[in-house]
Amino acid sequence: QVQLVESGGGLVQAGGSLRLSCSASGRTFSGYYVGWFRQAPGKEREFVAAIWWNGGSTAYADSVTGRFIISRDNVKNTVYLQMNTLKPEDTAEYYCAADQSVGSSWRAWDYWGKGTLVTVSS
User: Fold this and answer.
1) Is-contact 40 92, C-beta < 8 A?
2) Residue 88 region, left (φ>0) first, then alpha (ψ -120 to 50), else beta?
3) What is the mean predicted confidence (pLDDT) over 61-89?
4) What is the pLDDT of residue 32?
5) What is the pLDDT of residues 79-93, one digit of tens each?
6) Residue 106 — φ and ψ, nearest 5°?
7) Of 67, 64, 50, 60, residue with least CA distance to 101
8) What is the Cα–Cα distance from 47 to 37, expressed in whole angstroms?
9) Contact 95, 6 (CB under 8 A)
10) Residue 10: left if φ>0, alpha if ψ -120 to 50, beta else—which one?
């Protein structure tokens, strides 16, 4: 099965930027949708962004559109989430997920990383 590993989380001040990485071991991302989800303390898990590896099409949650950019690097077999103009409400555990078909919610995605914590100070 696909094994996912996130990295790049940390502490950043409001208005700053951070780039998260999601790498796969065991398989390439070819033929997969790769997404980012986040869960803030005391909140439900929510969709952030996703990319179709083969065609490169993307989708974003309304809360992050214009600030976050999801991209892929074929050479490194890695998906990135560039987060700009970060706000305190972006503070959450960020998870990378992958699936071979589109899911209606996070519960439908088959493969998950263990998460990386992003903390935005105010």
Assistant:
1) yes
2) alpha
3) 97
4) 94
5) 999 999 999 999 999
6) -60, -25
7) 50
8) 5
9) yes
10) left
